[in-house]
Amino acid sequence: MDFLNGQWAARMGVQDSQTGKPVQLQYQLKDGAGNVQIKRGDGVQCEAPVSASSEQGRLILNANSAAKCTDNAAYDMPKIVCDPGAAGAAAQCAGMYGSNAFPLILQQSE
Question: Superkingdom of the source (predicted)?
Fold first, then answer.
């Protein structure tokens, strides 16, 4: 999973339930493991360990626990599932909370 090494940003339509502002996810990965940082709409930051795997040709990013936040709250993290795109097309990714899915874009960031 060397191709995942580095920083990745997830752009999605999820909003903080308390502020209504967008939630930002930032993944830092190396050799299939790392962490995810979430910045809530109110500026509070949360962090959780994350692992990357491949199942039936799909890329899976899964937080190993709820993210711990600087305000001592916990934030449930989505499971990210990416299906490979057609030749030359971008992968199709979705965030999953149980059986509820929402589209997202996973992009490598600097």
Answer: Bacteria
Domain count, the chain: 1
Name the 3-class secondary structure at 57: coil
CA 110 – CA 108 distance, rounded (Å):
7
Query: Residue 58: which region, alpha, beta or left (left: phi > 0; alpha: psi -120 to 50)?
Result: beta
Contact predicate 78/60, CB 8 Å? no
Q: Which residues does residue 95 pair with via DSSP β-bridges, in sequence order?
A: 80, 102
Confidence class of residue 107 from pLDDT cuts 50, 70 and 90?
confident
- Tens digit of each residue's pLDDT (9 = 90 or more) over 18-58: 777 777 889 999 999 999 998 887 888 999 999 999 888 89
Q: Which residue has the tokens 């929402």?
A: 102
- Domain around 16: 2-109
**Torsion on CA atoms 4, 5, 8, 10, rounded to nearest 10:** 30
- The overall pTM is greater than 0.85: no
**Tokens encoding 109:** 């960031």
